[in-house]
Amino acid sequence: MQLPKRIVLVGPMGAGKSTIGRLLSRELGFQFQDSDRVIEERCGADIPWIFDVEGEAGFRQRESAILRELADDTRVVLATGGGAVMRDDNHEFLKKDAVVVYLKASLEQQIERTSKDRNRPLLQNEDPEAVLRHLFAIRDPIYTGLADIIMHTDRKSPRLVVRQIINRLNPRTPRQRRKVKKEDRNHV
Questions:
Q1: Could you give the CA distance from residue 64 to residue 76 in angstroms, rounded to a whole number?
Q2: Helices and strands per DSSP (H, E), number in the chain
Q3: Which helix (H) or strand (E) holds 152?
Q4: Would you tell me how many other CB atoms lie within 10 Å of the CB of residue 55?
Q5: Which pTM does this prediction carry?
Q6: For 68-123, what is each residue's pLDDT tens digit?
Q7: Is the four-CA dihedral 161, 163, 166, 167 of positive or negative sign?
């Protein structure tokens, strides 16, 4: 199987980028990197603290620097933060020698998966659902435009999503290849 040098997972909060990324990296024998965890390790602080002290703009600068650095890694699955796509200059680092996989989750799924998570600064307000709805409206077209593969994650186990990604990377049977070609035509 001829694999890409890197697989980059993009998508909204709660889509499963970290969970699916870990499983996918193990399955492929790749290293796993989570850009948010790398930022936290380098700063010695969690993301909510960085947002409190530096604001979103400061966090996004750190995120861009990490993405630039990780763009040269090979044999890696990279899970990005949901807002990593918001800076146009990050797109080059996300796409470099990579297959970009958009893990697409419905608004309902995002709400369910993030409702108790206090490590998401953008959702710490009166109406997290409105925030998720607003972010999805802005970011979905960007995720779609960057994606080589769009993978819906609703009502699917992480293991099933991983198998589906691997099948899209390397369809083994003629039936799978036809299905991938058809899906690719539908997403153009």
A1: 18
A2: 8, 5
A3: strand 149-152
A4: 12
A5: 0.86
A6: 999 999 999 999 999 999 999 999 999 999 999 999 998 888 877 666 656 655 55
A7: negative
